[in-house]
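Give me the fold.
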Amino acid sequence: MKDQRGVTLVELVVYITIVGVIMVTMVSFMMNLITSRSKISAVSEVLANARLIQDRLNDAARHAEGINVGGSTFGVDPGVLSLNMVDVGVDPTVFSLTSDDGQFQINEADGGNVLVSSNDVKITNLVFSNLTTVEDIGIIQVKFTVTSINPSDSDLFDYAENFQTAIRIPLD
């Protein structure tokens, strides 16, 4: 008998099936990886913007000498918080949303609005509540929602989270 080397049709079909299963598994894994990365990116953007807003509010509260109640809007959306600052160069400091209710902004000493949040998110439901006590401790509760902007309308980039914090402001 001759020594025949080669692959039978059955072996070839088995090899192609095994390679096909491996390829489908790899493609599925890669799609899951891309989906996870997209969602993590949206979540990270929301959290980074919320952290920045909270940091700016806390920093201003540390340098404030009081609450400008007449220049603030409490208990409604969108709220406005006006703080009397120790440094006259930034007095008053006003926190609000842009007119289209989407970006968090600061206005120091009527020097023009400066956006704090990025264009990748939308800020909504901004409510300031004056919880000031009779002991002259200025406490402002801040609530807001940060939503990732989803230009592709893909579920991968949909993410929103509500935030609540309180800032303490020394009063005159």
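The chain has a mean pLDDT of 89.
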